[in-house]
Each structure stands twice: as C-alpha cells, then as structure tokens.
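Ticket #4471: structure export looks truncated?
Reporter: QA, pipeline team
Priority: medium

Steps to reproduce: submit the single chain below to the structure queue and open the exported record.
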Amino acid sequence: MTQAATAMVLLSGGQDSAACLGWALSRFDTVETMGLSYGQRHDVELDCRRAVRERTAALGAEWRARLGADHVVDVSSLAGLGDTALTSDAAIRLQDDGLPSTFVPGRNLVFLTYAAALAYRRAIDHIVIGVCETDYSGYPDCRDDAIKAMQLALNLGMARRFVLHTPLMWLDKGQTWALIHELGGHDFVELVAEYSHTCYRGERGQRHPWGYGCGECPACELRAGGWQRFQEGGVELPD
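Actual output as written to the record:
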C-alpha cells in the first residue's frame, strides 16, 4: 500500500541507498532524491548515483511516474574537520578507540540535517536513509538510537513532524539483497550489482559477481558476504 505523500531519499549511489530508493518508490506517491558531496575518497559514487536513479526509474512505469526532483548538496567542508580514511588516502584500519578509520564524525547527522532543511523548504515530511545496525561498519551514527534521537531533534528544532525511515536498520547485507529482489525482481538485483558503488577505495576496474570494487576493504567484504548468502538461498526478510 502506498502512502499519499512525498519522501526524500538520501541517495549516495551505494547498494543500501539504491535499495532505499526502490523501497520508497514502492510506498510513496512522489520520491525526491538527495546526494551529498563531502570530499569522499570514493567520489565515483556521485557518478554512479545518477545511473542508479535513472535506471531504477526505468524498471517500470509506476516507479518512473513517482520519481521526482534530484538535489545534490556540497558539504565538502566536512572533509576538512577530520583526517579519516573515507576523505583522504589514510590507511583503512581499526583505530585505538575501536572505530574504523573510515568513520567520518557527524556525517549522517550532518546529512540528515541538510535533508531535513531541504525537506522543510519543499514541504516533505518523510526522509529515507539507508543506515543499518545489524550488518555494518561500526559507525555510531548508523545506530537506531542515534536516528531516533536525530528525528526528535529535527522535529523540535524545525517545529515539523519529520519521519525518518530506516528500512534496512535490522537487515544484514544478505537480507538487503533479498529486499532488492522482492522490490524489483532479478532486473533490480542486476541493476544494483552493476551500477551502484560501495568500495571505499573507489575501485571500478574489476567486476565481481556482486559488483565493482577492490574486494578487500570492509565495504566490499560486507557486500560480497551478503551477496554470497543471498545466492545460497534461504535468506528471509523479517515480517
């Protein structure tokens, strides 16, 4: 059942945000998308997001009719606030504080603030983001508690009733592939594998069964592991 409303999807160009785009197109009358340029090392994802968006809409007349405006926002100053492996050539490793060096402090909080500000101007109440606490890289701003707290802060600070949707929060990567298949069948799975980008190193040279990437960084390992579980079958989505 669709909701007679408009949603804003944070579309990075990765597997998770592509799944969220399909999820939103299956539920809302109109879906706008937002990309953010923050000086990311894998900025190839900004090119990939255009292909993901256009080709996802082309999967069916209903999705094509629902896809609305696209917005790209420059928040590149974020890269200068910390030396992270996602915004520089620093080594990808586990830090002394237990967090991966790819963690960009405040990234999702900044993203949601910008998304809410844009949604406010465009009279949009629903914001969709592909964060996950079940099978993720250890980022604290991907946790359910952080998103719930952010929703409360945005609603209080902007005097609006935004709803932050996290359809992947309790899914592992195998279940995310299963959701992609449930939403758009084999064609959507192949589209996400071919055109989305996850690799932290921005590698698009080698094509694996699960898509392009170096095959060694944490993002590639998560994506590849999820693909294998999905291909083996038996992956079930929660009710």
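Status: closed, not a bug. The export was complete when the record was re-opened. Leaving a note from the reviewer for reference: Residues 3-231 form a domain with the Rossmann fold fold (CATH 3.40.50.620).
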